[in-house]
Amino acid sequence: MAAGKCMRMLMLSTKARKSPRAAGFSIIELMVILMIAGILMAIGIPSFQSMIQNHRLITATNALFMAVNLTRSEAIHRGVRVDMAPAGDGATWSNGWIIFIDEDNDQRPDTNETMIYSYDKLHRDLRITPSFTDSKVQYIAFNGTGRTRTNANSQTSQSGNWLLEVGKQSRKVVVNFLGRPRICDPDKDASSC
């Protein structure tokens, strides 16, 4: 009887060694899975990059629009001239912008002038091209009534736009002669943008 039990145990252990494995992948299966994952990533990455660029463009456009509105509302609230100008060197809007009370009319914030708001440098992929009636110096100024004005004359309004571009996408922040900003998409509405 003991010999029969030993024989059965030996047969069971031999079957256990010959049975197929229960879990895991072979190298071929793993390579097929990696190849499928690589193909799916190659298809999805360009559309993901486009989505990121679109998000950057919308964020920067909204921030610039908000800054123009803030400049205008601060000018009305304070009853004085308030300027918005490029940060840093004062020539490139991509470096960000600053809003301040320009007491000496030089379109640059001085240490004794009141700083209201500043926005940091934009992502390197974003380009901003300004186009305004007074384009000698990059700025936009509002008087105490909320209308834009040029540096040369407080009664002459300044109108124009900023074109923001990233990749093939673009948006405009347009300021009319009354000082009201709006956002438009030149690709969808070229006639009024």
Helix/strand/pairing category: alpha+beta
Using the CA coordinates, give the radius of gyration.
32 Å
Q: Detail the poorly predicted runs.
A: none
| Total number of beta strands | 9
Shape: elongated
Please give the largest β-sheet. 5 strands, antiparallel
**CATH architect. name:** 3-Layer(bab) Sandwich
Distance between the termini: 98 Å
Q: Order of strands across the widest beta sheet?
A: 3-2-1-5-6
Protein model, in words:
- This protein has a 5-stranded antiparallel sheet, with helices on one face.
- It has helices spanning 2-18, 27-78, and strands at residues 82-86, 97-100, 115-119, 127-132, 140-142, 148-149, 160-166, 169-175, 181-184.
- It has 193 residues and is α+β, with helices and mostly antiparallel strands.
- The model has no long low-confidence stretch (mean pLDDT 85).
- A hairpin with a 5-residue loop joins strand 5 (140-142) and strand 6 (148-149).
- It has a single domain (54-193), classed as 3-Layer(bab) Sandwich (minor pseudopilin epsh fold).
